[in-house]
Structure formats: C-alpha cells, structure tokens
Amino acid sequence: MAPGPPKALKSLHAAIDLVWKDPARKDYALKAVAVHGRALQFLSVDLRADKEVVLKALKNDGWALQWASEELRRDKEAIFKALKKEVRSLQFAAEELLADREFCLEAISKNGLAYEFVDPEIRADREVARAAVGQDGLALEFVPEQFQSDPDVVLRAVQNCGMALRFASPDLRGNKGLVLAAVKQETSALKFASQELQQDRDVWLQACPSRLGHWQSQEEVLQEVEKEGSLLQLANPRLISKPEVMFKASVKDHRSLEHASPELCADVDFLLRLVKQDVRVLTHATDELRADREVALKAVDINGSALEFFTQELCEDKEVVLTAVRRTGTALAFAAPELRADREVVLAAMARSRTALLFASEELRRDKAMWLYNGEEPPVFDPPPEEEAAADVEVAAAVEPSEASRS
C-alpha cells in the first residue's frame, strides 16, 4: 500500500495545517490558534469574530488582537488578555477605547507601559501620567516634556524604577534628592545623574556604601562589571578602554559598548566573540562593519538573528540570508521582502523553525503546499491493485450501453 501522510501532519505543529483544510471549521481553528496565536489571520471572518477562538489565540500571542473582528477589538476581556501577553498589542484596540479615560486608567493599572498607546489627550492628563509611572517607572519615557520636568511625577517614577532617571529632564537629573531616590532602587541609575552628582562623594557613598571611591584597579572593576555591566561608566576612564574589561561588561549588558573606544567597536574578532553572548552588541558596531559582507556572513553563522543589525543591502543578499535562516529560522523576519517571497529561502527557514513561515510573503503564507508538504506538490497516493480493478469495472459499466438500449 502507498505510504500514509507525512508524520509532520500528525504532530502538534500540524494543527495549524488544519486551517487550510477548512478555515471556517471552529474545531480546526481552536487547535491552530492554540499552537500559533497569529494563525487567527487565516481564519474565516466569522471565526475571527468568535470570542472563544479569539481568546484562545490571545492567550497564546497578544499580537493576534490585530486580526480579531472590530467588535472584539472593543471587548475589554479580549484586549486585557492580549495586554497580559504583549503590552504593544494595545495599539490595535478600538480608537474610542484608547480615548476613554476610565478604560485607559484600567489598562495602565495592569501595565504602566500601556500609557504609550493611549490617546494624546489622555497622555496629557497629569493624573494618568502619575498612574502610569507609579505602575512602571519606565513609562516616564512617554510622558509629555512638562511631566518629565515635574519633580512629583519623576520622583514617583524613580521610586518605582531607578533607571527611569534617564528620562527625566536634565535639571532634575541634577537634583540630589531625586538622584538618591533613583540609586536607592538601582545603583546603576547613578550613570544618568548629572556629571556633577556623579562626582559627588556623598551621593557615591550613599549609592555604594560598601565602596570608598571610584574604582581604580582593573581587578576591582572586573569583579564589579561581572555583577552589573552597566556600572562600567563609573570606573576609571583609563580602564574602560581595556578589551577584557569591556568584554565582561558587555556580556552582562550590551549597552556597555556605548562607552567603548571606536577602535574596539571596529574590532571584528572582539565583536564576533560578543555575538556568541548577545547579538545586540552589533548595534554598537561601526557603520563600516555593519556593511561588511564577510563580517555579516560570520555573524549570522553564529546567530542568524544578527541579520537584523546589518545594512539593507546585506538583507537583500541571498547567501547572507540563507546562512542566517539556516542557523535561526525566524531570522527570516529581517530579510528583504523579495527574499521573504523566495521559496528556497523560506523553506530553508522552515527547516530550522516551522514558525518562520509566519514571516514569509503573504503569497507563500497562503500557499497550502508550504504548510502541509514543505513546499512540495501534494503526493499522489495510488490505490491498491484490487481497488483499481473495481474502478475499471465501474467505469466500463458507466460508458458502455446496455443490450436493451442497443435494441
């Protein structure tokens, strides 16, 4: 007998393939969105308006809210379920809700960063701003400038998250009381204080009571940056240029490279060593390196997601992109549109991660063969010999006139 369907169709990930058999069947839809919430986009209009299906999709992936029906994008239960998974999904909620003060306050009470997506008039409300930074101090980044200069709003933010000091107005970053409140929460917030306060021995001792002054020895600095890389800025400038110090600091916090010398940010071997630890270090590479094809090939071979940090031209280079997706399938998201529509590239990405198909072109995402048979034509299953013989008899009976009709 002919072989049955591929084993992949029986796996959990094959649930999403059911959508292609019938995008209007609810049982298929529920299985599909349980695996990939974003499969909601491929369902029928009626199922995208079915609350049970949409809630299951949102439980898996908050981004799925954008494909829910208009009615469900006005449904608070659905919106808050999406918000719980992904705060940025709030941007897909109905506009009238984002302009409703009561709704916005409720959303902010669940996640202060929801403040970024509410109507500008609501963001201009001081009490709403205070509520947001009280729930998550980092929401201070999104408040109007007048609130970033408001001592009460900023104090509330840094008491919640010391690092929020970076978003305060320059004059408040020179306010000793606010700076001390921030460093009490997080020692490394001191790097966002004014230069004068960074050199203030009283502030330093209150922020770091176990230390008697700025680090002077390489051994001491290495010990500290292994605990918290972002503290590097507080070290003696002479030591920041040391590759070993910068490497350990950057492993702990890639932003430490902001303080590296231009020579170090242009050192290919140094950066590739760091890519093995945290691919985001490439945000600090020189423009020349991020446009260098050989560097790109080496970086994406270590971590395919490194593709995100190279030039558009390299994201259009098929060899570079293939190397990336063969290492990390979801790196397909950073490929140029024409390569996300290239069957060979997409199949290479899917071989690494089936989820990569979600980043392919719409045409390929809607290609049933891609989902079910990895891009190949559906197999033809030949019937057993006895079935073929029976079929021949039926055909003959249908086409040959009977003796009665001849006469």
UniProtKB/TrEMBL annotation:
<feature type="domain" description="DUF4116">
    <location>
        <begin position="75"/>
        <end position="123"/>
    </location>
</feature>
<feature type="domain" description="DUF4116">
    <location>
        <begin position="292"/>
        <end position="340"/>
    </location>
</feature>
<feature type="domain" description="DUF4116">
    <location>
        <begin position="244"/>
        <end position="290"/>
    </location>
</feature>
<dbReference type="InterPro" id="IPR025197">
    <property type="entry name" value="DUF4116"/>
</dbReference>
<feature type="domain" description="DUF4116">
    <location>
        <begin position="26"/>
        <end position="73"/>
    </location>
</feature>
<feature type="compositionally biased region" description="Low complexity">
    <location>
        <begin position="392"/>
        <end position="407"/>
    </location>
</feature>
<feature type="domain" description="DUF4116">
    <location>
        <begin position="125"/>
        <end position="173"/>
    </location>
</feature>
<feature type="domain" description="DUF4116">
    <location>
        <begin position="175"/>
        <end position="208"/>
    </location>
</feature>
<dbReference type="Pfam" id="PF13475">
    <property type="entry name" value="DUF4116"/>
</dbReference>
<protein>
    <recommendedName>
        <fullName>DUF4116 domain-containing protein</fullName>
    </recommendedName>
</protein>
<feature type="region of interest" description="Disordered">
    <location>
        <begin position="376"/>
        <end position="407"/>
    </location>
</feature>
